[in-house]
Specification:
23 strands
């Protein structure tokens, strides 16, 4: 199979062929990140040094960037391979640094002259790391590309001035590292490796580095990451200044290790004990020399709270008596400000001391702190609250950080502090990913309090505190105890009044008495009489009501016996039902040609706009209802599942084959992917006549999708490709899966399980048992208790002599009509409105759930306008959303998803999961955190060979015109998503 090469690759092929004299059929090139890979092959393996000699001369005279496209990043390294045709592995490989071509050429010329058995000499090739230590941006880019190019990430490095905001302090330089790739790498995978490599260079003059990830061809970046480039020595001195023992030991070791002396340090009260030992079997360290070096270092540090130091000299660790001992007086003895330990300063409210204690607590591993920069703490005090921001290259976990921070602040007992608010974020972000609040004392102030903003660097923190006059409406740090206190005080009188009223009503019925009543109780005989009287009255009232209802039904509804004798003609096929509808049901059809000319589905005039969308098609709700009613399949207790299944099977009967592409998922899939738009877009991409059907079901979770694909649909009804369009809510095992519970207690579910067991028994005796679809691992049984058994028995007995039981459906319909005829419940006509009404959030969702077309798609013309929407609907935050309740990606939903993966792989059906778009209004802090967890979960599963994950959650988060509500698309957004999917090269669309 031929591979289509880009123009840049064809230009490189011709250039390599001309430079080396090898035919273009024997040359292959590949661009990966900042690396160019060149493979030279022939009937005999090309000679290494001659090929490199010709290629290096050509590289000296050619600018490779001119041969590539404008979007392609700069090339830093060239890898040249040589092999014989037909072989798998190359015989030789050579790496060429483009910034050292002269050295490479000298090495190659030397090798060509010397004997092949001798090692090639010539000039010394410097590593990229040694060049990067000098601070050159191009060398740093080449140094990082050695690691990132293997992942398909290209690197560019620039230097910009970072203003500090202080006139007396010079501006520092900041490294900006742009990472370009064809995908968006997870920042948690790149954060610590890049931070370690950058900090390993020990660059001087750079305070920090900002890493920006961007997809090739896009204008906006995907994410940012800040790396602290503060040298390890500076970090150690900062901690040692606060009296940290490990930091002091590291600094003393760095001074004395050059003289074969090792140091051990411990702290007892306010005295530092320092033991000097030889590295090997040497003599005891020199006393005068050790005291001089140690005193010089400790005086420069001036550790907080350490008054003196005792220095010991001994030969081995096992010596009980040191060979010499001496005492040193430290600066804290002379200066009272240095005598107070950091813990006491923090208890008095000293913010730098609190920051040190928090950073030391949250960075227990000093080596990791020095390698990656560790976790950084920013502290702000506002009124009686401490706001503490914790950021790191990888966002710290709330469960690991928040309890430690709150416990330390609680133990300090700082005067005037009544609460603490803890935040967590990834370095480089401004907004936190999570927050945690604890009140240390009772706080009666219920006025909303502003949450301060934290900058990416500490210089700007003081300028970003919200003013008192611009506090938000909501208070995110309000604790549960404060809310309960406020509600109890406001509702106390109302509860008392309501209780007294209900109490008087119960006592007036003479069925209840007061528990502390002092009068004599009613005798047993009198109590039995009262019970008999009330029971007799209730029975007579029931019989009288039954007789009256039976009399009314017999007079108002004609006898049904003649109807039973009339046999309704059976349609030959669902197709004939659509062509010649029954006259009794013709009223419910909506395929009138006049209905779509000037009005939409709600009856309002259509809004004229230029938004692209598929033209509205005829609705299939009436047809779906009739097909589901006439189907031999029992109901699944979910009306939409019954109707979608009936529509799909009618489509199979009409076309003679299943759909090529099946869209499945919850209501987000039902409204979010337009089959007609997708089919037309695929035809323009060279995939003509692709049949697409939308099998979306409201409330469908992973369990529901698993049940439909593996149990409901027969093998002959399975498509060639499955598009699962949904989001994280469908995989939350902590929520109540009401849709699947309704299905599991339905007669259709029992029927499917019975059919599956029958098929399994038949397959066991067949010769190919592997091809049978697997049965679900755990099938919840329908719950039948004693109450249901007794209720069914009473219904059967009472139905024999009841006058109204046989006509209960007619009675219900009659009561419904009478209620609709009441003046209070009549709806006013909408045809005489004196003003225009648009379709933006004007229609009720309950009236639209059945208005699907014959492709199973629900096209909504509603447009989401937050100001109008939240006048009719309450704003529900993520922590109160039942779909995100007890968010958990493991459990029953994950097990169902694994079953789907195994099933589609066994059937050789590609499975593509589409994470549909959401609005910024919907993605609050709580939901955004769960979405990020879902992203990691999906990317981990995307390694399966038959599974593809495509993330469109941030496709157009601020374009509300493409949404019908905060989390569902309308038909305009579905059109855009369908166009995006049709142009996606990663999706294996079926070919006719």
């Amino acid at each position: 199979m031929k591979t289509l090469l880009s123009d840049s690759q064809q230009s490189l092929l011709q250039w390599v062929s001309q430079a080396t004299g090898i035919n273009t059929l024997g040359v292959k090139v590949r661009l990966r990140g900042n690396d160019l890979h060149i493979l030279c092959e022939g009937s005999e393996c090309p000679r290494r040094w001659r090929t490199l000699y010709d290629l290096l001369h050509a590289l000296q005279q050619t600018d490779l960037d001119a041969l590539t496209s404008y979007e392609q990043p700069s090339i830093y390294q060239v890898f040249v391979y040589g092999r014989k045709k037909g072989e798998y592995r190359p015989e030789w490989c050579h790496k060429v640094y483009l910034n050292q071509l002269d050295r490479h050429l000298e090495q190659v010329e030397k090798a060509m002259l010397e004997d092949a058995a001798k090692a090639p000499g010539g000039a010394l090739i410097l590593s990229n790391e040694s060049l990067a230590r000098r601070g050159d941006p191009n060398a740093i880019a080449r140094y990082l590309s050695e690691t990132l190019s293997a992942m398909g990430v290209a690197v560019q490095v620039k230097v910009k001035q970072s203003e500090t905001g202080d006139d007396h302090q010079a501006a520092s330089e900041r490294l900006w590292i742009l990472c370009q790739s064809s995908y968006s790498p997870d920042p948690s995978l790149l954060a610590e490796p890049i931070a370690h490599k950058l900090r390993q260079l020990k660059l001087s003059g750079y305070k920090d580095a900002v890493i920006v990830s961007q997809i090739s061809g896009e204008t906006k970046h995907e994410w940012r990451l800040r790396i602290d480039l503060t040298p390890p020595e500076v970090m150690l001195k900062e901690w040692a200044r606060w009296g940290d023992v490990q930091a002091i030991a590291r600094l003393l070791m760095a001074v004395l290790s050059e003289f074969a002396v090792t140091v051990q340090v411990s702290l007892q009260e306010s005295t530092l004990h320092i033991f000097c030992l030889p590295n090997a079997d040497a003599t005891v360290p020199d006393k005068a020399f050790c005291l001089e070096k140690i005193l010089q270092q400790l005086e420069a540090i001036a550790p907080q709270g350490i008054l003196a130091a005792t220095v010991y000299g001994q030969k081995t660790h096992d010596d009980t008596q040191p060979d010499w001992i001496d005492w040193l007086t430290l600066p804290a003895k002379e200066y009272p400000d240095l005598a107070t330990p950091a813990l006491e300063l923090a208890a008095e409210g000293d913010e730098p001391a609190i920051i040190f204690l928090l950073e030391r607590l949250l960075n227990p591993n000093l080596d990791r702190k020095l390698k990656t920069g560790g976790l950084r703490v920013l502290l702000l005090r506002k009124d009686d609250l401490f706001h503490i921001m914790c950021d790191a290259p990888i966002c710290p976990s709330r469960k690991q950080v928040a309890p430690k921070v709150t416990q330390l602040i609680r133990q300090l007992k700082i005067p005037g502090i009544a609460g603490v608010r803890v935040y967590g974020r990834r370095s480089g972000n401004k907004e936190p990913f999570w927050h945690h609040g604890v009140d240390l004392a009772q706080r009666q102030r219920l006025v909303p309090e502003a949450t301060p903003e934290f900058a990416a660097t500490a210089e700007y923190v003081g300028e970003l505190i919200n003013q008192d006059n611009d506090e938000p409406i909501l208070r995110p740090d309000l604790t549960t105890e404060e809310v309960q206190t406020f509600v109890s005080e406001v509702a106390r009188d109302w509860v008392t009044t309501t209780t007294n009223t209900v109490r008087k009503w119960f006592l007036g019925s003479q069925l209840f008495t007061e528990s502390d009543q002092s009068s004599n109780p009613i005798p047993d005989a009198q109590g039995v009489k009262v019970a008999l009287v009330w029971g007799t009255l209730g029975l007579l009232l029931t019989l009288q009501t039954d007789w009256v209802l039976g009399y009314i039904v017999s007079r108002t509804i004609p006898s049904s016996s003649p109807v039973k004798n009339i046999s309704s003609p059976q349609p030959k096929s669902p197709v004939s039902t659509r062509e010649t509808p029954n006259p009794r049901t013709a009223f419910f059809t909506t395929n009138s040609p006049q209905s779509s000319q000037g009005f939409n589905s709600s009856g309002f005039t259509q809004a004229e706009d230029n938004v692209a969308a598929t033209p509205s098609k005829n609705k299939a709700n009436a047809t779906a209802i009739l097909l589901a009613a006439r189907s031999s399949m029992p109901s699944f207790n979910v009306r939409q599942l019954d109707e979608q299944l009936a529509l799909y099977r009618q489509r199979i009967a009409k076309n003679g084959k299943p759909a090529d592409v099946l869209i499945i998922g919850s209501s987000r899939a039902l409204r979010g992917v337009d089959p007609a738009a997708l089919s037309k877009a695929l035809a323009r991409q060279g995939y003509p006549n692709v049949d697409v059907f939308n099998f979306g079901i409201n409330g469908a979770t992973s369990q529901v999708v698993d049940f439909v694909l593996r149990q409901v649909l027969q093998p002959s009804e399975l498509p060639k490709l499955i598009l699962w369009a949904d989001g994280s809510r469908a995989f939350n095992s902590g929520r109540d899966d009401l849709t699947f519970k309704a299905i599991a207690n339905s007669p259709g579910y029992e029927y499917v399980l019975k059919q599956a067991k029958t098929s399994e028994n038949n397959n066991e005796s067949s010769t190919n048992p592997e091809k049978s679809p697997p049965v679900a691992k755990k099938t919840p049984q329908k719950e039948i208790n004693n109450y249901q058994v007794i209720n069914n028995w009473l219904n059967q007995k009472l139905a024999n002599f009841s006058a109204s039981y046989q006509h209960r459906e007619q009675i219900q319909s009659l009561f419904h009509k009478q209620l609709e005829s009441l003046p209070l419940l009549k709806t006013s006509p909408k045809t005489s409105l004196p003003f225009d009404i648009t379709t933006n959030n004007a229609e009720d969702d309950s009236t639209l759930t059945q208005a699907v077309d014959f492709d199973g798609f629900l096209p909504l013309s509603i447009r989401f306008h937050p100001a109008r929407y939240y006048q009719k609907h309450s704003r529900v935050t993520g922590n109160y959303d039942n779909d995100y309740k007890n968010f958990q990606l493991g459990g029953e939903q994950d097990a169902a998803f694994q079953d789907v993966l195994q099933f589609t792989q066994s059937q050789n059906i590609p499975l593509v999961f589409i994470n549909l778009p959401l609005t910024d209004e919907y993605l609050d802090q709580f939901r955004r955190q769960n979405e990020q967890e879902f992203q990691t979960y999906m990317l981990r599963l995307a390694t399966n060979p038959n599974f593809i994950y495509r993330d469109l959650s941030q496709f157009f988060p601020q374009n509300n015109d493409n949404f019908s509500d905060p989390s569902h698309l309308n038909r305009f957004g579905a059109y855009e998503v369908s166009q995006k999917l049709a142009n996606d090269p990663m999706i294996p669309w079926p070919v006719k």
